[in-house]
Amino acid sequence: MLRSLCVCFMIVLLGAVCSCNRQKPFQPTDQYAQAIEFSEEKIPLESGEFIYRQGYTLKLDKSEELNFAYRLTTLKEGDIPGFSCNAEGWLIFPNQDVWTNRSCMSFDFVSSGGKVQDLICLVEVRIRKPDGDTQNQSFPFRSSRVLDSMISVPFTAGENVPVGIEFILRESYGDIFVEGMYAHHFMYRLNTLNANLQVTENGQWYSTMQSPDIRKLLLNASTTPALIPNATDTFTQFEVYVVSRSGLIQENPSLIHFKVVEGNQPVALLYSQTVVGLGSNHYSVYNSETMPYFELFPPNAHGFNTGLYPTSTGYQAINSEDFQLHLRWGYSGQYGRLSSNGTILPTNLPWEREINLVLNSAGLRYYSRITAFWLRWDGGPFPELPQFNNTETRLDNAGNSWLRVLNQDDVCRYAKLSNLPNGNHTFELMVEDLQGVLSAPVSKTIELVPFCPVSQRWGKLIIDDSPHSITYSPEDYVDTFYNSILPSQFGNSQTLDVAAQTNPDFAISPAVLQTYKLVLIHSDNPSNQMIPYHYLNGLDFYLSNQGNVIISGTRNLASMLHDAPASWVAQRFGISCPDAVQALGNSMTQNPYFVRAVGQQGYGDIPLNLDTAFSSIVASRQGLSAITHFDPSLNLNWLYSFGCKPVDSPTYPPTQETYDLLSNKYVSYRYQNEGSNLIVFGFPLSYMEQAPVAAGLNAIFTDMFGNLTQRSY
Question: 367 with 153: CB under 8 angstroms?
Answer without folding.
Answer: yes
